[in-house]
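Work Package 3 (structural annotation) set out to generate three-dimensional models for the target panel prioritized at the project kickoff. During this period the team completed the workflow that converts sequence records into discrete structure tokens, so that structures can be stored uniformly alongside our sequence database. As a representative example, we reproduce one entry of 93 residues exactly as it appears in the project archive.
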Amino acid sequence: MQTLDSGLDLVQVNSCDEDLAITFVPTNYEIYRILQVYPNLKEIYVEPCVFEKMPCAGQTLLYMQKVNVIVDDPSIERLSEKGDAALAIVRTN
């Protein structure tokens, strides 16, 4: 799973990934660019504070593209050595 720390990270991505973690609050344009760069995207993992600040239009765009937004709860301890976190799942669609 690829992790984006800023919109500038879109330049160096593996576009065949189906899931993505975002650690910043993306703008509508950045969400649009993410969908262009990741045509196979199925799920986006975000922290609760990022999800609360995501623009409604961007969330709607993800919903229209059938991308699940999964709110990652950082307070739950990590399950694997890869760094995948346990998820408190809140799906927007």
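The CA atoms of residues 52 and 87 lie 16 Å apart.
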